[in-house]
Amino acid sequence: MKPLLRAVLIIDALILLASGLLFLLTPWKSLYDALQLSQTDPVLVGQGFGIALIGLAWLALHASIDGAMTATVAKVVGHVNWLTGVLMLIWLVGLHTPSLSGLDQLVAVATGAVLLVVGLGGVRLASAVRRRDRLAGTAAAERAGRVAARDTANEARKAERERDAARPDGVYPAGGSHAVEPMPGTTLPGSAVSPVSPATGHPVESDLTAPPRTSATRSREDALARERAAAADEEAAARERAAAEGKSGTPRPPFHG
C-alpha cells in the first residue's frame, strides 16, 4: 500500500509543479491568450501562488522518496488537492466565474474533478498507511519486549546453574530453603568420616602424616592388642571373684596398719 501512496505523491508533485509554473508565468500575456486562460490580477498574487505550489510539489516529490515523510506529506497534499478541486467546481460550475467557453469550462471542470478524486484518494491512503505503520510499530515493540523478557529469564537460569555448579556438595546458603542439618551419627555426602573409638565412643583423629605400616609393625600391634585383651580379661575375672566373695559373707582379714 505504501508504494501506491508514493505513486500518488509523484502524480501530485507533477500536477502541483505544472500549476505552479503556470501561475509563475502570469505576466506572460501571450501564453495565457494562447491557452485561453484568465490572468491573475494582480500579477504579484499569481506569482506568489505559483512559488507556493512549486514548493509543495518539491515537498511531495521528496516525501515519495523518504518513507518517514510519506504518510504525513501525502495527507497534507491530499487535503490541498481536494479542497482546490471543490473550490474550482464551486466557482466554475456554480457561479460561472470566470465566464468560459464550452470547451474551456469542460476542461476546467474535469481538472477540478481530478483534483478532488486524487486528493481524497491520497488522504485515505495516507490514513491507511499510517494506521498500518502504527500497528507494525506496536507489534515490533511487543515482540522486542517478549525477546527481552526471554533473554532475561535465560540469563537468570544460566546464573542459577552456574551458582549451583560452583556450590560444594551438600552445602547450601544459610537460612535458604535448601538448608540441611545433619542428623546425629550421620554424615553429609562428600564429608570425611572420622574413625570412632570403641571404648570411649569419641571420634579419633587420624594421623595423616603417619608412615605406612609394614607386616612386622602389624604383628607387634596384634601381639600388644592380645596382651591388653588378656590383661583386661584377667582384671574382669578378678573383679568377678571379689564380688562373689563379698556376697558369700567370707570374713576378711583385719586391717593392719
TrEMBL record:
Q: Where are the transmembrane segments?
A: 7-28, 43-61, 73-94, 106-126
Instruction: Give me the stretches of Basic and acidic residues compositional bias.
Output: 143-167, 218-244
What protein am I looking at? Answer: Transmembrane protein
Keyword S-adenosyl-L-methionine attached? no
Which organism does this sequence originate in?
Answer: Paraburkholderia diazotrophica
Per the record, which residues fall in region Disordered?
141-257
Keyword annotations: Membrane, Transmembrane, Transmembrane helix
